[in-house]
């Protein structure tokens, strides 16, 4: 899949000492997405807006707010993270992902 008529922010978003990186993609409609890559590790992220995480490659185990166990998500799967929350993930090898932010 590809995005057309977008603006890409050249500077990377870098987290966890470079183990997680992404680039921001802005659409004419005001929609915002990030395309990113995660190396093996355990991570915890906080959200401002609702996020839809789509796994483009690799696997990640995710514990969403209110859950007591991790769920494995693989290529072609996605999940929703509520706004103003935090979630945990474990990446065994790598994950290629697309994160879409709810536009209020």
UniProtKB/TrEMBL annotation:
Protein name per UniProt: Pyrimidine/purine nucleoside phosphorylase
Organism of origin: Trichococcus shcherbakoviae subsp. psychrophilus
UniProt KW Glycosyltransferase keyword: yes
HAMAP family recorded: Nucleos_phosphorylase_PpnP
A GO term, aspect molecular function: thymidine phosphorylase activity
Catalytic activity: cytidine + phosphate = cytosine + alpha-D-ribose 1-phosphate; guanosine + phosphate = alpha-D-ribose 1-phosphate + guanine; thymidine + phosphate = 2-deoxy-alpha-D-ribose 1-phosphate + thymine; xanthosine + phosphate = alpha-D-ribose 1-phosphate + xanthine
Function: Catalyzes the phosphorolysis of diverse nucleosides, yielding D-ribose 1-phosphate and the respective free bases. Can use uridine, adenosine, guanosine, cytidine, thymidine, inosine and xanthosine as substrates. Also catalyzes the reverse reactions.
Listed GO CC annotations: cytosol
Alphabetically ordered keywords of this record: Glycosyltransferase, Transferase
Family affiliation: Belongs to the nucleoside phosphorylase PpnP family.
Leading EC class: transferase
EC identifiers of the protein: 2.4.2.1, 2.4.2.2
């Amino acid at each position: 899949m590809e995005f057309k008529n977008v603006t890409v922010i050249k500077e990377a978003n870098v987290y966890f000492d470079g183990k997680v990186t992404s680039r921001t993609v802005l659409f004419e409609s005001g929609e915002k997405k990030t395309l990113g890559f995660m190396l093996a590790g355990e991570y915890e992220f906080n959200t401002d807006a609702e996020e839809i995480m789509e796994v483009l490659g690799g696997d990640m185990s995710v514990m969403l707010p209110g859950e007591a166990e991790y769920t494995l998500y693989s290529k072609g799967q996605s999940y929703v993270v509520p706004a103003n929350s935090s979630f945990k993930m474990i990446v065994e090898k790598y994950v290629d992902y697309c994160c879409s932010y709810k536009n209020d």
